[in-house]
Write a structure and sequence with these properties.
CATH architecture of the largest domain: 3-Layer(aba) Sandwich
Largest sheet: 7 strands, mixed
Helix content: 25-40%
Strand content: 15-25%
Strand order of the largest sheet: 15-16-17-14-13-19-20
CATH superfamily of the largest domain: Aldehyde Dehydrogenase, Chain A, domain 1
Number of domains: 2
CATH topology of the largest domain: Aldehyde Dehydrogenase, Chain A, domain 1
Number of strands: 23
Number of helices: 17
Length: about 500
């Protein structure tokens, strides 16, 4: 197994992402490529060459060949490489985190936390012998027994985003292969080297050649996978417009599909809330990963009686965050992923000012200690935000927090439920009646009570509603088993002679 350094210091020898097909590393043959940049410094890390249709055909063909043998193996045998992968991921967690930080920009602690979440999914998938059991009922009818059996389907693909390049592939891959399928991953072209490192460990873990494969590329590579006759299903995580395209394209070609889209999550702050705790959790949720995550809560809807006090505490908390390079020990928030994305987020801040929101904390001024070439925007907080303003409605995907004043709890719930998105929401309250109403009336798939970020554990599915999700079965947990298998029902009668 050849090693690919992330950076050599010589731009002409920068690392080039490779595909992993049939147990071998290969150079993509397509036209076009994506530069990979260290967002903390602006320095070139490497390049992602794009795969063409022939690259995709080869990867799917090798996966399809491997499926025939792999799906027939005992489930206990199929999970053994996952046990080894879990061990390797834990052993190399720091190495993986360093690669992730260099090409993404998040802090080292955030990278390790992300990988821990991914490892949890590997752990859950190791329980596949139990998860695949579908049920048996003797004497379902006179002299008839019925048994439901889950069976794998073939080759699945997943298209994963830049913001969690270590965790999100592990939302899908372990469940797909443990249930007997073969798998092709298409990672983000912005963060290919985390996938490279992950697949080096997968190679070492002992999966048969062809069971797991990696193809790099852009939109054409994705479309080739979605339309491929031998791909039976697709998973996606990314923005809502692309999620909708993936859902429609895959469904048009007769495939199973689950597509996680964008988000505009809300925190509701009751007049009964512990304001210190609520402010700390709100800032943590809004600015972790520099706001570049679908579980961030970039809108806080606050009861009017405590609004001013809460706003002051939020500004104090946000202002105290240390912004810098992700590998610096003191850094609490890193840069944005690219220069273009930084420019987009800055445009949203300008729009908020133009639409009349009060800029309580302006993150546009670069700290003198931050490198000019890095893609930095420090925490930004808007007050007096109207729910109809652009910054309250659009997914900004950056460190921008909007505070909305609510008349009462009914008003706060109404603001939340009017959003076109429905990924997650949280409430801070000391009143059980408010928590109960929130649980039953909040229109989002992941709900937290006195929890800043409603992130489900790996043994529960990752929810999502409205424009935040397209499909029927979600990532993680039992939903993954249902997505990657189909049930066959055996109906048996043995009449007595």
């Amino acid at each position: 197994m050849s090693e690919t350094p992330l950076s050599t210091g010589d731009e002409t020898e920068a690392a080039r992402a490779q595909n992993y097909v049939g147990g071998e590393w290969r150079d993509p043959a397509g036209e076009g490529e994506q530069e990979v940049v260290d967002s903390a410094t602006g320095e070139r890390v490497g390049v992602t060459p794009f795969s063409d249709a022939a690259d995709v055909d080869e990867a799917v063909a090798r996966a399809n060949e491997a499926f025939e043998d792999w799906s027939a193996r005992p489930v206990e045998e199929r999970i053994q490489p996952l046990f080894e992968l879990k061990r390797l991921l834990e052993e190399h967690q720091d190495d993986l985190a360093e690669v992730l930080v260099e090409e993404h920009g998040k802090t080292f602690a955030e990278a390790k936390g992300e990988l821990r979440r991914g490892i949890e999914n590997v752990e859950v998938a190791c329980g596949m012998p139990t998860m695949l059991q579908a049920g048996h009922l003797p004497n379902a009818a006179p002299d008839i027994d019925e048994t439901a059996v889950r069976q794998p389907l073939g080759v699945f693909t997943a298209v994963t985003p830049f913001n969690f390049p270590g965790m999100i592939p592990l939302w899908f891959l372990p469940y797909a292969v443990a249930s007997g399928n073969a798998f092709v991953l298409k990672p983000s072209e912005r963060t290919p080297f985390t996938a490279r490192k992950l697949f080096e460990l997968i190679d070492e873990a002992g999966f048969p050649d062809g069971v797991v494969n990696l193809v790099n590329g852009g939109p054409d590579t994705v479309n080739a996978l979605l339309a491929h006759d031998d791909v039976v299903g697709a998973s996606f995580v990314g923005s809502t417009p692309v999620a909708k395209h993936v859902y429609e394209t895959a469904a048009k070609h007769g495939k199973r599909v689950q597509a996680q889209g964008g988000a505009k999550n809300h925190i509701l702050v009751s007049e009964s809330a512990d304001l210190d705790f609520a402010a700390e959790q709100t800032v943590s949720s809004a600015f972790a990963n520099s706001g570049q995550r679908c579980l961030a809560n970039p809108v806080a809807v606050v009861h009017g009686d405590v609004y001013e006090e809460f706003a002051d505490r939020v500004v104090d908390e946000a202002e105290s965050l240390t912004v810098g390079a992700g590998l610096d020990e003191d850094t609490e928030m890193g840069p944005l992923v690219t220069a273009d994305h930084e420019a987009t987020v800055r445009e949203y801040v300008e729009t908020g000012v133009e639409e009349g929101a009060t800029l309580l904390l302006d993150g546009r001024e670069r700290d003198a200690d931050l490198p000019e070439e890095g893609h930095y925007l420090t925490p930004t907080v808007f007050g007096d935000v109207d729910p109809e303003m652009t910054i309250a409605r659009d997914e900004i995907f950056g460190p921008v927090l909007a505070l909305i004043r609510a008349e009462d709890f009914d008003d706060a719930l109404s603001v939340l439920n009017r959003s076109e998105y429905g990924n997650a929401a949280s409430v801070f309250t000391e009143r059980g009646a408010e928590a109960k109403r929130f649980r039953h009336e909040a229109e989002a798939g992941n709900l937290g009570v006195n929890v800043g970020t409603a992130a489900p554990m790996a043994f529960f599915h990752f929810g999502g509603r409205k424009a935040s999700f397209f499909g029927d079965l979600h990532a993680q947990g039992d939903d993954m088993v249902r997505f990657y298998t189909d049930e066959t029902v055996y109906i048996e009668r043995w009449p007595e002679e």
